[in-house]
Structure formats: structure tokens, C-alpha cells
Amino acid sequence: MEKNPYVPMPVNVDKIITEVTTKDIKTFRFSFVNKEDEERFSYLPGQFAELSIFGKGESPIGIASSPTDKGYVEFTVQKAGVVTSELHSLAEGTLMGIRGPLGNTWPLDYLEGKNVVVVGGGFAFTTLRSLTNYMLSEENRPRFGKITVVYGAREPGLLLYKDELALWEKRDDIDMYVTVDKGDKDWEGREGFVPAVCKEVAPSSENAVALICGPPIMIRFTLPEFFNLGFSKENIFTSLEMRMKCGIGKCGRCNVGSKYVCKDGPVFSLAELDELTPEY
Amino acid sequence: METRLIKKELLPGLIKGLADDTLVYAPVQEEDDVFFRVLEKDMEPLAEFGNTKNAPKNFFFPQAETMMRFMKKERGSELEGTPGDAPEAVLFGVRPCDARSFVLLDFVFNDPKYRDPYYMERREKTTIVSLACVHPPYSTCFCTSMGGHPFSPEGADVLLVDMGNDWLAECVTEKGEKLIEKLGDLPRADDEVLARKKDMAEQAASEITTKVPGKEIKPWLDENFDHPFWDTVHVGCLACGTCTYLCPTCHCFDITDETKDSEGRRVRSWDSCMYWLFTRETSGHNPRPSQKERWRQRFMHKFKYFVDNYDAIACVGCGRCVRYCPVNIDIRKIAQDIAKL
After folding, report:
1. How far apart are CA A246 and CA A97, in angstroms?
2. Is there a contact between B114 and A80 if contact means CB atoms under 8 Å apart?
3. In whole angstroms, how large is the CA radius of gyration of chain A?
4. Fold of A9-102
5. What's A108-205's CATH class?
6. Which of B64, B5, B111, B20 shows the shortest CA–CA distance to B266?
7. pLDDT tens-digit profile, chain B (341 residues)
8. Which of A195, B135, B137, B291 is positioned for an S-S bond with A222, CB 3.0–4.6 A?
């Protein structure tokens, strides 16, 4: 029997982590109620899923865990609308649903054998975190060249995944540059905007690909730095967000030019974005 | 192709006969308009009319439908079930333009990666009987410009042609053959009838004098997303959405949850790119902030994006949006104006 792509798979909310001092961004860890659903939910970094709460609706959210983390799947969600507000009020042990995985992935095959520069700003680090953990896993690390991560937030309390960042900093097979726009009295790390840090770090564009996610203002000032470093539009990727409902290219609302962000994206190279209409 | 003749006066009775054991949707006169309705015992199916006010897409893609039901339980709401199987049905009296719309909708809902189970269940169980337009009914008809034809069998299982004293029935698919078999022992059409039908088809097409550029304007659309022409198209548009609701090929939808006490359902309903909320994000950002962008989207989706994806224009030339737009925005004129740029 063919599976109905609109029916969510039941999941248990195993764990809820409040990520930021403003308390409006939380990471939700789910486990599948049915073992076969876990196998069906076979995903790669960059993909998303519809988080489904019956009675409230669905919300498309990027997958923040890595497929190398077995037994669970994680999403980091900002409290914003009807569904995400309900999600934020849930307790551990609640049953809800997820539908996916949906969309394309970070260009993993293309990244193989290349140096990878990951640039994230603020809350837009979730699927990049999935990718970084994926590349750092024991079985995958040899497939990729040098890994550089530039990750910034407005202030220290807004950095996501702080424990994990600290673990990555200790490794010698990844170059970490964590920065905040402005530190506080306890902050001993780097201060400065993401574009400025990228300029200072100056990753080589030789055999390298940059993956950049962040607020529009950060992207606007970061891109010129990468062009100056010699990165071509074919070697810079980002991930788009659009209002979505079905997630499978039928309901029409995430239509941008001839593409649907839900099924043809969300990951696009800048060269591909140039081909699209600027309606996102 | 199997071709049969049905005596003119017998057809309504045969269709009513089908309704004894099968669900039959047929055109029915209601006040000034014709609508598709479930054919009940006391109802007479129309075989001679212009076209129905609504496109028949709702039989496969209803204006609102339940996708699943859920129930509040101790640890959260859980799925109760999805709708059961659809009944076998006959959709009688579809015009060739509307029949063709099903072929276009199939591209979207029968996508091999994600088949839409709700649409496909009804689509596969329904036999479509179309009626050729011997005299295309409206001055707003332009199917011939959009790749269709008043005698096109595309999308139908049986095509009926009014030959004067008889209906000529052409079985287009196996489904159609089965239906015609069910109607009893009908005489085969001879070559004289088929030759006459060919002449009638040519005559019918020649009666559609409106020429609307279709794929000819695609190269312009490819290059001119930012052209000042787009500042003129939407002027006067009320964003009522009538064009998208009556359109046989518009397929955008919304998904919403409805609850009452501890029970609820997830509902799919038609939506429209003409509405500002369609693309408005929670943050307040709207990628299509004004009616200008929304009209451009509607036109581009039909005449460029759909062509890029499926090599077909998402318009069948039925003319409903032209006839019923309250401010007389005319998609034919937009295409013609673009061709002059």
C-alpha cells in the first residue's frame, strides 16, 4: 500500500532544550513511535520536515540533527506562529507528528573531497549544524577536506548549541570561529560581525565551497567577502524559507519561478538563485 | 478506436439508467446557469447547453475535503483515520476544454514522486464522458489557441459528438469502452459518419475566431519578469479570487485544522494566489506584497512556469475567468498585449 504523503508519523517528544536566554528558541528531540517510520524517515543534512500538531496545523522546519545520530531526530524552533507557539508549550512525553523528510539536501556529493566553509548567523544555523555533525562523524570525516565554521549571534546568550560548539572547538579537524556582535562581562570569545570575521579568516576559495545561512542583512554583507575571496556563484549555497503547506510541490505557495522551494529546494546555489525570480 | 451510434432521444434515458447503480454527475439546469450535480432519480441530464458555470475539477479536487480525522488523547492528539475508498462514478457532459484540464492537473497530482492519494482515488474510479462543441458556445472560447480543440478527446474516456439524429460515441480509453458496453448493443458508426464528423470538427474549430498567443510569448516571459508592463495588468483587480476558483486548472490549496471538543479533522480547501495571505510569512515578510506580484504570478504560472515544468500551458481556454471577472480583466488581452511588446 502506497503511503499517504500527507499523514504525519507519530513521534514522542523525548527532550526539550531551551537554547537561548530569550527562551524563544528551543530544540525538540523526537523519537518515532513506530520502528518502520524511523526507517522511512531516512534523511540527509539540509532537508526539512513538517512538524504536525493535530488541532493546530503544521510548520515546515529544517532538521537540526545529523542522520549519523541514531534513534532520534531534532528540530530547533523559534516561537513565532500558531504551531510553533503550541510546540513551545508542550511538555516532554507528549505525542505529536512529523511528516518528511522533505526537500533536497546540502550538496553532499559535490562537497566530497572539497574544503567546506560553513557560515551561520543567529538562529539560521540549524541545518548547518546537521551538516557539520554529519561531516565530523567518524565515518564521514575522511570524505571532506578542511572544514571551517564561522558562526555568529548578536550576543552570547543567543548562540545555539553552546555545548556542542565547545566540543567542536576542542577538535583539531575543524577550524572554529564563533563570534558575537557584542559580548557581555563573561564573554571571553571573539567580538565582531560575521562578514568582518569572514574577511579576517579569509578562507581560500581553492577547491572550496561555502554554505551560508543567516538573516538577510548578514547574507548581504557576507557575500561580497566571499566574492572577493574568489568564490564563484556555483560554489556558494544557501537555504531558502517560504510559507509552505503541502511540502510536496502541489499546494502552490512556495512557488518561486519554475521551482518549488519545498521540493526543488530549500538548498540552492547562488548561480541557481540567479535563474529564479526574486520572489522569496 | 471503437465508435458507436446512440439515438438522440435515447441518451438522457441511458445516462439516467447508469445512475441506478453508479454515481453519476451530470449537467443540470438551475435557474440561469448549468451546474454539475449528482444525478438523482427525478433529474434530467442536460446534453445541450453551453458550458457549466463551474469547472468540474471539484469532483477530483473538492473545494473542501477532509484529509484525516484526529482525536485528543491523554498524551496528545492522535490520528483516527483517513477517508475510505471513493465510489465508482461517471462524470457526464464535460466540455473538451474541461476534460483537457484533467490531463494538466494529473501532472501535479499524479507526480511519480508524490502521488496525491485523494485526487488519484477519485480520478481513477471516474469515467469521463465529454461532449464535443459542435458550435463552440461562447465568444470567449479560445481552446484552439491553448493546444485544445472543440472536438478533442484528450482527458475524456468517451467523446460524444452530436451528429443531428444520433450521438457518435468515440471510446478513447478502455474505461470508456467498458462504459459504452454497459449501455447495450449499439450500432457501429460507418465511414460516412466518421467523414462527416471530421468536417464538423474543422467547422467547429473555424468558428473560434479569437487568437490568443500561448507558447509564442514564452520567450518574452522568460526575459521580462521586471518589465513595466506588469504595472498595468492588475489595475482594478479586487483580489476576489473568482478567476482562480472557476479555473479548471488552478490547483493551489490550503491545509487547516478544525476541532470541536476532543475531535477534529485536517481539511484541504482551495486557495488562491490572488490573496495576500497566500504567501505571507509569520515574520510579516511577504514575497508577493501587492496585487501586481500576485497577478504576475498567476499569469507566469500558467504561461511560463507550468510550460517549463510540463511543456504545457496551464490554461485550457474555457474563458470562465474572462466571463466572470467583476472588473473585466481579460487574460486573452494580457497575452495579446504581451505579443505586441
Report:
1. 15
2. no
3. 18
4. Elongation Factor Tu (Ef-tu); domain 3 (2.40.30)
5. alpha beta
6. B64
7. 789 999 998 998 898 888 888 999 999 998 989 999 999 887 888 888 999 999 999 999 999 999 999 999 999 999 999 998 999 999 999 999 999 999 999 999 999 999 999 999 999 999 999 999 999 999 999 999 999 999 999 999 999 999 999 999 999 999 999 999 998 899 999 999 999 999 999 999 999 999 999 999 999 999 999 999 999 999 999 999 999 999 999 999 999 999 999 999 999 999 999 999 999 999 899 999 999 999 999 999 999 999 999 999 999 999 999 999 999 999 999 999 999 99
8. A195
Task: Enumerate the residues of chain A whose CB falls inside 8 A of the CB of residue B301.
Answer: 252, 255
Shortest alpha-carbon distance between residue A175 and chain B (Å) = 33
The answer to whether B208 and B143 are in contact (CB under 8 A) is yes
Q: How many whole angstroms separate alpha carbon B272 and alpha carbon A274?
A: 27
* Segment 50-69 of chain B within 8 Å of chain A by CB: 67-68
Q: How far apart are the C-alpha atoms of B286 and A280, rounded to whole Å?
A: 8
What residue segments make up the domains of chain A, in order of their start? 9-102, 108-205
Residue type, A194: V
C-beta atoms of A241 and B77 within 8 A? no
Strand runs labelled E in A19-68: 25-32, 48-53, 57-62
Taking CA–CA distances from B252, the nearest residue in chain A reads A251
Q: Where are the domains of chain B?
A: 3-207, 215-340
CA distance B17 to chain A (A): 35
Q: What is the ipTM of this complex?
A: 0.92
**Gap from A214 CA to chain B (nearest CA, Å):** 15
Cβ contact B114–A277 (<8 Å): no
